[in-house]
Amino acid sequence: MKHLRFGAAGLITLLVLTLFTASPTMAAGLTGVSAQSTTVYGGNSVAGKVTLDAAAPAGGFAVSLASDTTSVATVPASVTVAAGAKTAAFKIKTVGVAANATVKVTATAGAVSKVLTLTVKPARLSSLLVPASVVGGNKVTGKVMVEGLAPTGGIEVTLSSSNTSVATVPALVTIAAGKSYATFNVSSTPVVSSTQATITATARGLSKTDVLTVKPAGLSKVALSRTTVTGGS
C-alpha cells in the first residue's frame, strides 16, 4: 500500500483549497406572507409582503398570489423578489362591505404555499364638518365622512341639531356606494345675538358632532334719501 505524504507547502495548499472552495449556494424558498395590518376598512388598501429564507437568485424569485374572495379583496397574480433581496411588497385592494368579511390570501412558490388571513370591516363614521359660523338667514354646507368606502346600498347617516330655532338639518343623508363622504345643507334663521347649535351625525352606532355659530346680520351700508342737505333742514 502506498502512503501519500505532504510536505509543509503541500499541506498549506490543501488547507487553503479546503477553506475557500465554494460550497453550493442554498436555493431560496418562500417562508411567509404578511400584511402591514390584518384588519382593514373596506375600500382601503393594505400593503402585503412575501418573505424568502435566502436572497433571491439572479433574475429574481417569482411568487404567485391569489385571493379566495375576489369580490372583497384582490391581489396581483404574482410578485417578484428582486435578485439579492429577501422580500417583496404588493398591494391588497378591498371594496366596501356591509359586514365583516374574512379573506385568505395565498402565496405560492414551487410546492410551498403560505396563507395570510385578512379581515375586511365595514366603513365607519370618521368625521362631521360644518363651517364655524354663518350669518342668520343663510345656508351653509356640512360634510360627513367615513373611513373606507360605502358598500352597495350606501350608508345612511342621521342628522340632528341641538337648536332648531336657529339651525336645521335634514333628518338623513346617504353616503353613496363607493364614496367616502356626503354633503348636506344647514339652514339658519336670523338672530339678534350670536347663538350656537350643535350638529350631530350618527351612523352604525357612532356619532360625531360639530358646532355652528349663527351670527346676527351686521350693518352693511347707510342709505341717504338725499345726497345734499340745505343748512337748517
Q: Descriptors for this entry?
A:
single chain; 233 residues; mainly beta; 5-stranded mixed β-sheet; 18 strands; 6% helix; elongated
**Uncertain regions: pLDDT < 50 for 5+ in a row?**
11-24
Number of strands: 18
The helix/strand series, from N terminus to C terminus, equals HEEEEEEEEEEEEEEEEEE
Give the overall form: elongated
The end-to-end distance, rounded to whole angstroms, is: 147 Å
Strand order of the largest sheet: 2-9-8-4-6
What is the topology?
Blueprint: H1 8-20, E1 30-35, E2 39-41, E3 45-52, E4 61-67, E5 73-74, E6 78-81, E7 87-94, E8 101-109, E9 112-121, E10 124-129, E11 133-135, E12 139-147, E13 155-161, E14 167-168, E15 172-175, E16 181-188, E17 195-203, E18 206-215
Parallel strand pairs: 2-9, 11-18
Antiparallel strand pairs: 1-3, 3-7, 4-6, 4-8, 5-7, 8-9, 10-12, 12-16, 13-15, 13-17, 14-16, 17-18
In words, what does this structure look like?
The N and C termini lie far apart (147 Å). It is elongated and about 110 Å long. By secondary structure, the protein is mainly β. Strand 8 (101-109) and strand 9 (112-121) form a beta hairpin. The longest helix is centred in the N-terminal third of the chain and has 13 residues, at 8-20. The protein has a five-stranded mixed beta sheet, with no helix packed on it. The protein has a five-stranded mixed beta sheet with strand order 11-18-17-13-15, with no helix packed on it. A four-stranded antiparallel beta sheet has the order 1-3-7-5, with no helix packed on it. The chain contains one helix and 18 strands.
Give a short overview.
With 233 residues, the chain is mainly beta.
